[in-house]
Amino acid sequence: MGNWTLSLLGRNELRAPDGTPIMLPTRKSFALLAYLACSPERAAARARLAALLWEDADAEQGRLHVRKALWTLRKQLDGFDAETPIAADVDSIRLEQNWSADSAMFENAVASAGDDPALLDEACTRYTGDFLSDFALRKAPAFDEWVAIERQRLRNIAIWALRRLLDLQDARQPADASTMATALRLVTLDPYDEKAHRAIMDGHRRQRRAAAAIAHYQDFRSRLAGALGVEPEAETTALFEDIAGRRRTGGTPQAESKPVLGSSDRAPRPVQPGSEMVRPARPLARKRRWPWIASLLVPLYAVARLGAGETPDRRARGR
């Protein structure tokens, strides 16, 4: 038989070993299982569970609530052809070894991936959403606080793993499809990670989508100013200016340019952005001298005609 499975990332679900979804009668029953699954050795004291889930109850009432929740869970789970999933004694409750939680599987996958990009990518795909998202209990502020801490801890692990994966992918082959996909996943968790935004912009540029890269930068800059009141990093702005400059001048992105080799097998000197719009100074200077020269030639021509005996009256009679 398989394991009892708790899904805690992105969705909240309990499945039996045969894959059957199980609907528990109360949300606090699911909360109790979630807390046990994330606790060291998958165990917790009854007093701790009472304080966490029934904070407004006194000690005696708290113990009764825990006992009732345990009885309800066992009744719900004992109907399946599987080993007993929950053990208990006078002071504590624990989950047996035939349990698995996706949050723990995600952590273990990240820890064992090392610097292998394929393993790290597979580990990151296990993070399918925030811990116990859209899950809340009434009158259980201690539980809500624990959930918030655990949620941020797991999110930080996912951010670290994606940043590490982005570094490894960038070192292997800058801004290919997998790099851009990783960057997009990273900015959903950390909207202000500038290296991820630069990877997205560079990915657009290499796909000859300069307009998309420029729009991405402008949107990011607007959100950064609105939320934090700061400008993008100099490296991010420099990338934007390079993309925008090449787009204005019709330049080719550096990653896609193909050098043309001459007979000497030497690549031509690269054209600096914007320099193809600058015309040589000499033709411009020559063009500016022509009106000045013409202004001298017209009076000289008139003097020469008068010296030959031709006057305006004689020219008119000759016509």
Describe this structure in words.
The protein is about 60% helix and about 5% strand. With about 325 residues, the chain is an alpha+beta fold. It folds into two domains: about 5-100, Arc Repressor Mutant, subunit A (Orthogonal Bundle); about 115-250, Serine Threonine Protein Phosphatase 5, Tetratricopeptide repeat (Alpha Horseshoe). The strands form two sheets. The protein has a four-stranded mixed beta sheet with strand order 3-2-1-7. A hairpin with a 3-residue loop joins strand 5 and strand 6 (about 90-95). Helix 4 runs antiparallel to helix 5 (about 115-125), helix 5 (about 115-125) runs antiparallel to helix 6 and helix 8 (about 195-205) runs parallel beside helix 10. The longest helix has about 30 residues, at about 140-170. The model is unreliable at about 255-319 (pLDDT under 50).
- Please provide the count of β strands: 7
Please outline the major beta sheet. Answer: 4 strands, mixed
Instruction: State Rg.
Output: 37 Å
Structural class: alpha+beta
Q: With helices defined by DSSP (H or I, 4 residues minimum), what is the helix count? A: 12
Round the mean pLDDT to the nearest integer and report it: 81
Nutshell version of this structure?
With 319 residues, the protein is α+β, with helices and mostly antiparallel strands. The chain contains 12 helices and 7 strands. A hairpin with a 3-residue loop joins strand 5 (86-88) and strand 6 (92-95).
